[in-house]
Amino acid sequence: MKRRVKKILSISLILLLIILILIVLLFIVRLMTPTEIDDVSPGILCPEIEIYNPDVLYIIPDYNAHPISFYPKWCNYILSRNKELGLHGVKHTYKEFLYENISQEELNLGIEEFEKCFELTPKTFKPPQLAISAENKQLIKKNNLKFKGYFNQATHKVYHCSDDKMIPNRIVKIF
Asked: Could you state, in order of their start, the residue ranges of all structural domains in the chain?
């Protein structure tokens, strides 16, 4: 009986050690990868751009029916930050890429807004709330947009504009 208990304890310790090593490795990876900010739009206050100085900004092209191209000063400000820019949904409605079948035309409108604002074509895409259906994921890939999802979120420090998310930015900063 004592042997069995010792064996269970040693296996438990090994598993605990493996988990701790994985957590440390994830922490190191997050320190080395580019930082990101989601939910960037002229309709959302975003002091986090100045506070965290991220490497990547994920832009909402048409938040609350306010296309970003209507805000040329904002577009120039974002461009002046000299950051990588990605597309973050089209309208950023709740899980829009999970519950709605996004048409090519809808996606094109988001891409066109992005291009009008920044004179750049987006290369990356991250769906709102990281939720996307298989059909919409195929649409994203068909448009040669690099998809960013849960793995990206786990391996990068991702802050949010307006910091009202489930995991506050101050917690993201620590980890």
From this structure: 1-32, 34-174
